[in-house]
Each structure stands twice: as structure tokens, then as C-alpha cells.
Amino acid sequence: MKKIALVTGATSGIGRATALLLAENGYNLIITGRRTELLDNLKKEIEVKYKADVLPLSFDVRDKDQVDAAISNLHERWRKIDVLINNAGLAAGLNHVQEGLEEDWERMIDTNIKGLLYVTRRVAPIMIEHKGGHIVNIGSIAGSEVYENGNVYCATKHAVNALSKAMRIDLLKSNIKVTQIRPGMVETEFSIVRFHGDEDKAKNVYSGITPLFAEDIAQTILFVLTRPAHVSINDIEVTPTQQASSTYVTRNL
Length: 253
Ligand code: NDP
Ligand code: 8X3
What we know:
Blueprint: E1 3-7, H1 13-24, E2 27-33, H2 36-50, E3 54-58, H3 64-72, E4 83-86, H4 102-129, E5 133-138, H5 151-171, E6 176-183, E7 186-187, H6 190-194, H7 199-205, E8 212-213, H8 214-225, E9 235-238
Parallel strand pairs: 1-2, 1-4, 2-3, 4-5, 5-6, 6-9, 7-8
Helix pairs in contact: 1-2, 1-8, 3-4, 4-5
The structure holds NADPH dihydro-nicotinamide-adenine-dinucleotide phosphate (NDP) and 2-hydroxyethylsulfonic acid (8X3).
Keywords: Oxidoreductase
Organism: Acetobacteroides hydrogenigenes
GO molecular function: oxidoreductase activity, acting on the CH-OH group of donors, NAD or NADP as acceptor
């Protein structure tokens, strides 16, 4: 029987690439996000290309009731979730703290921290019931470093770093592996969202470098998921070759 992976934030970027790669490598997929049409398109694409079964679930991870309804009403056939990829997340704004927009802060805290917790709270008991699983949290290099204007985004990813370590301890006895992956610059919709839709500003983030692509992180996820049962990869930082830290990047200008 194929394993089941639930990927949050599968409508775009890292989540979408991960769903495709896992389907190609023998998983059935539960794909989630708010944009229903993109989920439906991805379902069709996966079914045609990889003959995997796909269940699209549209919900906002910030809404506890929506998360609850989606996961507790899963049909028996989809309830044995083997893998959870906690990927849904965003940065909103890039301002000094004294100029930050409170609505941006709330979006990031509610999505990156509380959303990840709401989904985990409902999926981990299912894994425990089935005697094991693997949770992959998408953190960031912003979870181990802080950079100018990054304040609240960095704080949310520091929280993901702490939660990943805490989850590993709490779930150890239940045979659930917890891996954190901390990417550097990956060209996705991330910067477009961060700059509230300003595509020129977003493009500029990656000027003069070859950034990571979503598929690079998907490959990293596949690697950690396919290690033998006795091997747990706990934490991986992945950056473009031209990036040594959040603030140290060489550009071909
Ligand atoms: P994208 O913007 O391309 O994708 C983000 C995904 O998250 C979308 O599928 C979006 O779906 C989903 N999402 C956002 N908010 C919500 C919500 N409230 N409820 C449900 N789903 C939501 O960005 P990335 O692929 O780059 O980002 C994925 C993860 O990787 C994030 O956690 C990000 O912080 C992290 N990351 C990204 C880096 C980068 O440079 N790109 C570097 C390091 C980490 P929808 O809009 O349909 O709801
Ligand atoms: C995204 C990477 O450097 O923009 O998490 O914070 S960075």
C-alpha cells in the first residue's frame, strides 16, 4: 500500500514541488492550501503524470475550526497519514520594528507558528494511533539568524526551530521522526507575498544570484524521508551556493 503524505501550502512554491516529487516517488497525497482552483489543478496534474491518488483540502491554517473540520472528517482511507510536511507559511513586510504593520505581524505569527501547531495537534495523534510517522517542518535560515527588518518573520522561524526540537522530544517515544529544513533564498511566490504583490521588488531579491528552486528543497525532503528507519535527520540548512548567511550573498552584478 502507498504511504500518505499531507503537504500544507501545496498551491505554490516548495509545497507544490514537494507534492509532485512525492507523488512521483510512490506517495498518495493530501494537498492543502486556501486557493481551491490551484489545488484542483495540481490534483489533475499529479493524477495524469504519476497515477497517485490525491485529496485536495482547502482550508486556512490560521483557522482552528477549519483545520479541525478538514482533518477530523478524513475518510478512513485517508486517515493513515505517514508524513506531514508543515510548509504553509509566509513573510509579510520588511520594515524596521518601529514601522512594522501589525496586520503583517499577525498574519506571520498566526500562519507560521499557530497554523503549524494547529495542523500538528491534529495529525500527530493520528500518527501515534498508527504507531509512527515523520513530520518535516519548513523553517528557515531566519530561524537561526536575525537580519535588519526581518524582526517578526525571524521570530516566527525561531519559534519553528524551537518547536521542531520540542516536537522531536515529545514524539520520540511514539516513533515519530521530526526533521527541520532551513532554506536560504528560494525563488517562489515568497518575495511577491512579502512585498504585498510588488513583483519588481520581489525579482530584485534574486538579482545576480542563482537562487534555490522549490525543487531543490523538495529533493532535500525526499532524501530525509527515504533514510532507513533507524536514521533520523534532524536539521538541515540549505542555501544557494552564493549565499553564506542571511546577509552575506555574492552577486554577479
Ligand atoms: P510560496 O508563497 O510560494 O508558498 C506558500 C504556501 O503557503 C502557499 O501554498 C500558500 O497557499 C500557503 N499558505 C500561506 N498562508 C496560508 C494560510 N493561512 N493557510 C493555508 N495555506 C497558506 O512560498 P514558499 O514555497 O517559498 O514558502 C513555503 C515555506 O518555506 C514557508 O514556510 C516559508 O517561510 C519557507 N521558506 C521560504 C524561503 C524562500 O526563500 N522562499 C526560505 C526559507 C523558508 P495559499 O495561498 O493557497 O493558501
Ligand atoms: C526566507 C529566507 O532570508 O528571506 O525564510 O529570511 S529569508
